[in-house]
Amino acid sequence: MAPSRSSASWLSSALAVCAILCLTVPANALYFFMDGRQTKCFYEELPKDTLVVGTYSSAVINEHSNTYTVDPNLKMLITVDEIFDNDHRVVSKRDGPAGRWTFSAADAGLHKICLTPETNAATGGWLSGAQAGAVQVTLDMAIGETSKIESEDKDKMQDIVQKVRDLNGRLQDIRREQVFQREREAEFRDQSEATNSRVVRWTLIQLFVLSAACAWQLSHLRSFFIKQKLT
Asked: Domain GOLD: where (predicted)?
């Protein structure tokens, strides 16, 4: 009896550990099946100013191969309504077989998020021969998870960062060009001032020489006239 009790306790402990591990695994995405033009809604209680980013992908059943394939003609209607505000619609978007939507909760309250596929796939039912669940939808919603949203937008952020770096590089080039132009302007100004000062100096020297020559000539003529009168 003792071995059976120990084995039973060991089995119960193992099951408990497995249950805990299963509960600790995060469920980031879910997938479900819908009939054509059927609406599937989810309700989320959101605090104020909560950012919600949703992504989805869809596939349509192929009746011949009995597999789900992407239908480029499929359109998905995404709507988000504020239940607490008389079903005020904050998002209404029609996208392709895969897409994304984003919204921020203006006020705290219950929000209804609905997806409606628009496809010509046959609708299943017990009166029709078509298979139920003609559309397979994979849905992933990030609610207030900034790190996940940033990881999804990593490529876009890198592009923006690269553009900012390019702009900074161009600004640095423009600044260097401006500094170079200012240095050339300062050098040209110094040369102009030096040339002007030399011109003024030579002009003053010429005036002095001409004045001295005129004074000498006047003095020479005066002495000449005086000598002529005396003689």
From this structure: 39-143
Out of 119, 146, 173, a domain closes at: 146
Pairwise CA distance, residues 130 & 117, whole Å: 17
Q: Are residues 194 and 111 in the same domain?
A: no
Count the Cβ atoms, other than its own, within 10 Å of residue 61. Answer: 23
Closest-CA residue to 49 (of 95, 88, 104)? 104
| Closest by CA position to 49, among listed 92, 135, 137, 108 | 108
What distance lies between CA 111 and its chain's CA centroid? 27
Q: Give the global pTM.
A: 0.49
Q: Enumerate residues 6+ apart whose C-beta is below 8 A from 51.
A: 102, 103, 104, 143, 144, 146, 149
- The predicted-structure confidence for 189-211, as pLDDT tens digits, reads as follows 999 998 999 999 999 999 999 99
Listed in sequence order, the DSSP H helices in the chain are 2-24, 146-152, 154-230
How many structural domains comprise the chain?
Answer: 2
pLDDT at 22 over 80: no
Give me the mean pLDDT over the 30-59 stretch.
Answer: 87
Same domain membership, residue 159 and residue 140: no
